[in-house]
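INTERNAL TRANSFER SHEET
From: sequence group
To: structure group
Subject: Glycoside hydrolase 131 catalytic N-terminal domain-containing protein

Please process the attached sequence and return the structure record in the designated field. Keep the field labels unchanged so the import script can parse them.
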Amino acid sequence: MKPVVSLLALPASTLAGSVLWSGIFNSSATVAEFDDWSWSNQIEPWQWYIHGSDKTSEYLGLSSSYKNPAASDAQGLRTTIDGTSYWEGQTMERTELIPQTTSDLGSGHLYYHFSLSTSSTNPPNATYEHQIAFFESRFTELQYGTASGSSGSDNTLRWNAGGTTHWSVQLEAGNWYNFAYDIDFTNQKVGLWASNGSEALTEVVSPVSASASSNSADWHVGVLRLAGSGTNDDNAEDWFWSGVYVEEDSLTKEIGDGSSSSSSSSSSSSSSSSAEATSTSTSTAAMDMATTTAAVETTTSAAETTTSAEATPTQVVAVQSSSSSTSTSTSTTAVTTPTAAPVIATPTAAVATPSAAAASSVASLPVPTTPAQILDDVKALLAALLARGGGVHARDFAV
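Return from structure group:
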């Protein structure tokens, strides 16, 4: 199996401690790769040998639909036990993965993270005892169902330490239960942190004494089922896993790394930027329209008090300003609603309907209505100004 230690799913910026080992699956991991592991080919991150006689895909599954939606995993893990899940002739039904690593997972103060869920499809049988996420010595583990050798049905999910139940909850299909075993191998204590769904972990059991030990290859991520009434169940039951990793030093309480929310933030930021650009464009366009209107109004005023020769460039300036402002607006946003012709037409129409006084003062001047006519007027204007002999100055275009 190819290494699928996906520390990209757990960036250092979001972690409180350091990851010693990660069993989180990236998007390229496939079920077939579990079979690449063997005793002669011990590749990380998982050992896969405790299972029944059927093909691996009957016992394991990988899918984005198997993960805690709040977690950063690309895919979650499904473990299935059924009437074929007998390992090495045992009477227990087992489907279990074990970390494959060179890291020391049995010393110091560590946190074993995982999230667990079930479904109303292939639900667990509450009349059977289940040992879940357990160590070989069983100094800590989860248990579900009726104790082996007893009768009845018990829908309780329990956390045990030192053989004693310290925390329990009624198992609810579809709910994601997040856990972190708080294991102090040095001081021989173990506690439990837990939460639901996307909620951050909280301490639900303070550390209690336990004979904590691990050889780094004896944490069973999966399920061992014992017959509660002496007979096993052939029906399949599914357990789903997400966010499986081991951390040292400090505890990361958040579920996942927030990469989804980062993506959402990026999307939101992008949308915000787009909105800002649109707003800027709208404001710019509004300001430009106001400028154009003001220019047109000034043109009208100028037309009332100046000669017709001076009124012509003023009109041209107003049209050019509108064209320029439209270009600025378009560069600010991807919205390209107006075109050159309507932009020119708008101020032209405004100039074409001046006050009565203005109309009488500029009646001899035809109002340009096409780009070609405007260009001709500009050329004529420049020629007239250059003919003055004094050069062209900004004052010649004052409005």
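Handover comment: The longest helix spans residues 259-305. The first strand starts at residue 18 and ends at 22.
Transfer complete.
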